[in-house]
Specification:
Elements (H helix, E strand, L loop, with lengths): L1 E3 L3 H14 L8 E3 L1 H9 L6 E3 L3 H9 L3 E11 L1 E5 L13 H4 L2 E4 L4 H12 L9 E4 L2 H9 L5 E5 H6 L5 E4 L8 E8 L5 H11 L1 H9 L5
Parallel strand pairs: 1-2, 1-3, 6-7, 6-8
Antiparallel strand pairs: 3-10, 4-10, 5-8, 5-9
Helix pairs in contact: 1-9, 2-3
């Protein structure tokens, strides 16, 4: 199953819970940027289920006829600014990012990179690309702050929560923020029983409870 990097912790827990009722099913995940995963599936990489961090990459697969049925949005996410512990450069909002130093953003073709670009436009903020370092996915982008290579980054709330002991957070107002929609669908001409069961589990009470625990929005 191919899933966006931001789903890693939640989906690992969901798979564990899913296996309680399906003990003979081996759920294997391929995590990565949704854009890279979609391109890999189009190129022939095996996948029974695709969970994307945006609709655009799901639509790309639909356009090639690789998606069975209609995708379902199972979660949402928001963006947040993360800084080094203690916020040493005093970042209070997106407006402070251009002067703060090296800023980590996801690659421009990756959903979290596109969402960050939209948020910066909404905030009327421009960061010189010479002061931007790009991560291949949201985890790599967050690591650049956690490991000291950047002073701040724009990532998902869920990823910031996962490394709350290594970064501080600065909220982005709803008027500037972007709501990321996460669709899920079976891949292939037909939907196998395991794919159908897993998707139903993600959308069901236990799956949604786990996603909420990791701060995904319903």
């Amino acid at each position: 199953m191919s899933a966006a990097t931001s789903l890693t912790n939640a989906f690992n827990d969901i798979a564990t819970a899913f296996n309680v009722g399906h003990p003979f099913v081996n759920v294997n995940f391929n995590y990565g940027a949704s854009s890279a995963l979609a391109d890999a599936i189009i190129a022939g990489a095996p996948a029974d289920v695709f969970a994307s961090a945006d609709q655009a990459n799901m639509t790309k697969l639909q356009d090639t006829g690789l998606v069975y049925g209609d995708p379902t949005t199972f979660a949402h996410n928001k963006l947040v600014i993360v800084t080094k512990p203690g916020n040493p450069t005093g970042i209070k909002s997106a407006a402070d990012l251009p002067r703060a130093g090296v800023i980590a953003l996801c690659a421009v073709e990756v959903p979290c990179g596109k969402y960050a670009a939209q948020a910066l436009v909404s905030a009327k903020v421009t960061i010189d690309e010479s002061r931007v370092t790009r991560g291949q996915n949201v985890a790599a982008t967050l690591d650049q702050v956690a490991e000291g290579d950047a002073v701040a980054a724009i990532v998902y709330v869920t990823d910031a929560q996962a490394k709350a002991d290594q970064v501080d957070t600065v909220s982005i107002p709803d008027t500037q923020n972007v709501i990321a929609a996460y669709p899920i669908a079976a891949i292939g001409k037909t939907e196998n029983a395991v794919s159908k069961a897993f998707i139903a589990f993600v959308k069901g009470q236990t799956g949604q409870r786990i996603l909420k625990r990791y701060r995904f929005l319903p």
